[in-house]
């Protein structure tokens, strides 16, 4: 079929042609934001799910919802090489600038700018443009201790008070939140704790891999009560069918029932893979015909090839030889979660000896612990990729 008209969007964070199965979570977030805006008690929330389930797409939608509710909303993506402070500063500056108004000066807004200036000062960030353009003196003694857990709450509280003074609210949206350090996560939790106690209008929305649950728990035990953690999973069969059928139907094309069943089997309902299979099946299918089982079988080949070259490959290439061995042993045990002891047995060693490599893999976002002593891949179908990539399992680590 005509490649140019292909509706599918297999790439990280791309808006899918049909956002299937996410009405409930989006209704919920709309209600949370709406209630929050009118000062009703609502919790901040963090979306939790594996790679490729559609968390980033949802955060973009929630950002839109927040803007529609007239929130001052910022969306940032955490990564291991950039500090939380450095991520937030330019965005918070933007918010405060939009709240600032020379004709109608507000002391809370001015104070928040001064607190931001203090915060930047101690972070010693080389962001000269910000230092110059803030145009205020630092607020001495506020957010300038150099301890993020003390300073971030002061800063965010000042921002929230500024928003309140302007009768608006702030949404801070953070993607890949599992990449924050324990200290940063803890500082964020303490800030939200303080803000919710004072009922100030600042909400945190985040998304991340399942390891964020452990990170939050370790940082602050009360984080469990402070946040909601909606789980984002694969699509069920009906939603997966909608995700495939609706976009092609618009162009007068249909998948046969068998074709849909086959895609469901291969993708297990994971949105990223649904886009990938849909994309290839469309290109392979004959012009003017239904997309059938044969097309999908061929699509499986080209989908896997492309995933192996990109989605899986970029993650594989970031691994040390040791980490590859560990993951290959995990893959040898088959799909699903496995005991750390079984993994070490496969490598003729003990779980203790593997704890370092295991922790590094968790930090890199490759694996997580679904329950105590258990390990699973964070990337669906990665076990099959590992077996394709390293066909012969070697027990020596
Ligand atoms: N509800 C959905 N229905 C169909 N496709 C989706 C849905 N959510 C996401 N996708 C697609 O899945 C892929 C991964 O989405 P993304 O938001 O990057 O996932 P994550 O952030 O969880 O890794 C993208 O190609 C996107 O278009
Ligand atoms: Mg994402």
> Bound small molecules, which ones?
adenosine-5'-diphosphate, magnesium ion
β-sheet strand percentage: 5-15%
Low-confidence stretches: none
Q: Tell me the distance between the termini.
A: 48 Å
Q: Largest beta sheet, briefly?
A: 5 strands, parallel
Biggest sheet, strands in spatial order? 2-3-4-1-5
Helix content range: 40-55%
**Rg measurement, Å:** 24 Å
Number of distinct helices: 18
Structural class: alpha/beta
List descriptors.
397 residues; alpha/beta; 5-stranded parallel sheet; 3-stranded antiparallel sheet; 18 helices; 9% strand; globular; binds adenosine-5'-diphosphate; binds magnesium ion
Describe the structure.
It is globular and about 70 Å long. It has helices at residues 23-37, 55-68, 84-99, 107-123, 128-134, 148-165, 182-197, 211-219, 223-226, 237-249, 257-267, 271-284, 293-309, 311-317, 321-332, 340-346, 355-363, 382-389; strands at 44-48, 72-77, 170-175, 202-208, 227-228, 338-339, 367-368, 374-377. The termini are far apart. Helix 3 runs antiparallel to helix 4 (107-123). The strands form 2 sheets. It has a 5-stranded parallel sheet, with helices on both faces. The protein has a 3-stranded antiparallel sheet with strand order 6-8-7. The mean pLDDT is 93. It is 54% helix and 9% strand. The structure holds adenosine-5'-diphosphate and magnesium ion. The site of adenosine-5'-diphosphate has 24 residues, from helix 2 and helix 12.
Question: What secondary-structure arrangement, pairings included, does this model have?
Answer:
Blueprint: H1 23-37, E1 44-48, H2 55-68, E2 72-77, H3 84-99, H4 107-123, H5 128-134, H6 148-165, E3 170-175, H7 182-197, E4 202-208, H8 211-219, H9 223-226, E5 227-228, H10 237-249, H11 257-267, H12 271-284, H13 293-309, H14 311-317, H15 321-332, E6 338-339, H16 340-346, H17 355-363, E7 367-368, E8 374-377, H18 382-389
Parallel strand pairs: 1-4, 1-5, 2-3, 3-4
Antiparallel strand pairs: 6-8, 7-8
Helix pairs in contact: 1-2, 3-4, 3-6, 4-6, 6-7, 7-8, 11-12, 11-13, 12-13, 13-14, 15-18
